[in-house]
């Protein structure tokens, strides 16, 4: 099988959030600046909004971030300095969803995720993962980051350079996958941005703390959060913008969770995603069906499920299509028991997986 070069893997050891961000900014300045240029085009293409307007809009999220996680605002300030950008550029990158859908309801596909109980695995490990689908252009600016950040847990994650987080796990055994959701409540709400919440989850030391990172703040945007830990706790939180009244919970079904870009729970608000992504329920169903074929799964079985092409081109394995130029950016499998990340660039059917053990892992 063709093996595309894996993602740049950087390591950061810094307890001071500003200096941590500055190091990241300096280390991947070209990729952060590259993402700014990409999103300038994306906002103009999808919403007819120029970058100056985007940056001005981003300012309204500074106070909610400061109140929710001041250390993460400091990290963004450092990242801006290290990459020779303005803070508003970094805020804009981390509020791309919130700002985009304030100006347009043109939804872009993102992600199929899963979680498995240890009883569903041959090795009796807790495993979660996903295919992350997004704009093809950002793949070259996507990185794997290991962050040692006392007093918070150490983290390994994959994300677009300049983003605080996307998908990963930490030294406390807490893992995170995520999906974009879009609801009738998404109308430029001022609150804590989606990508900031993602990082706060991975900065958590306990499972309950990770869940509270989602339920307690006033959220700016809808989103789906798959949170698990190495002890076998797994929960899925489907959220609209606002507070805990707009949080809906899902658990494992016969040891398996599958999720895509639509609300599975009944809600008091409208699920707008289905108007634009009618394939989403099929992807969620397909990943669950693929993972149900074996009484106990190997990592190779999971890899095959993530390469699935049922309902192509709207399949779990997403290939670049000519209009939106969306594809699977990365396929990620996280073993929370042994603390490993097995990852392949997309389209995953064309590339091999590589297993990565972060420095904080005790595995050999």
Automatic annotation (TrEMBL):
InterPro entries documented for this protein: C45_proenzyme-like, Peptidase_C45, Peptidase_C45_hydrolase
Domain Peptidase C45 hydrolase: 122-344
Pfam families per the UniProt record, alphabetical: AAT (PF03417)
Protein name: Peptidase C45 hydrolase domain-containing protein
Native source organism of the sequence: Peribacillus saganii
């Amino acid at each position: 099988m063709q093996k595309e070069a894996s993602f740049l893997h950087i390591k950061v050891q810094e307890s001071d959030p500003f200096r941590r961000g500055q190091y990241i900014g300096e280390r991947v300045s070209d990729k952060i600046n590259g993402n700014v240029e990409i999103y300038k085009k994306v906002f103009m293409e999808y919403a007819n909004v120029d970058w100056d307007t985007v940056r001005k809009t981003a300012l309204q999220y500074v106070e909610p971030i400061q109140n929710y996680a001041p250390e993460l605002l400091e990290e963004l300030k450092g990242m801006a300095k290290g990459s020779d950008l303005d803070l508003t550029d970094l805020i804009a990158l981390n509020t791309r969803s919130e700002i985009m859908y304030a100006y347009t309801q043109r939804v872009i596909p993102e992600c199929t995720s899963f979680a498995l109980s240890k009883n569903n695995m041959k090795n009796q490990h807790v495993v979660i993962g996903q295919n992350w689908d997004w704009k093809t252009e950002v793949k070259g600016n996507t990185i794997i980051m290991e962050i040692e950040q006392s007093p918070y847990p150490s983290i390994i994650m994959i994300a677009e350079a300049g983003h605080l987080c996307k998908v990963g796990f930490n030294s406390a055994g807490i893992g995170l996958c995520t999906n974009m959701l879009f609801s009738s409540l998404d109308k430029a709400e001022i609150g804590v941005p989606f990508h900031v919440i993602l990082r706060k989850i991975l900065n958590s030391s306990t499972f309950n703390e990770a869940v509270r990172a989602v339920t307690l703040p006033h959220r700016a945007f809808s989103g789906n959060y798959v949170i698990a830990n190495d002890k076998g706790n797994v929960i899925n939180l489907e959220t609209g913008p606002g507070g805990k009244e707009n949080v809906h919970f899902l658990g494992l079904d016969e040891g398996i969770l599958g999720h895509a870009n639509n609300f599975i729970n009944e809600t008091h608000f409208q699920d707008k995603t289905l108007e634009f992504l009618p394939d989403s329920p099929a992807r969620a169903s397909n990943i669950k069906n693929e993972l149900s074929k074996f009484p106990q799964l190997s990592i190779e079985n999971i890899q095959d499920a993530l390469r699935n092409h049922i309902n192509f081109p709207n399949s779990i394995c997403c290939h670049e299509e000519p209009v939106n130029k969306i594809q699977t950016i990365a396929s990620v499998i996280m073993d929370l028991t042994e603390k490993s990340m097995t990852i392949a660039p997309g389209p995953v059917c064309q590339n091999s997986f590589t297993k990565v053990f972060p420095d904080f892992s005790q595995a050999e």
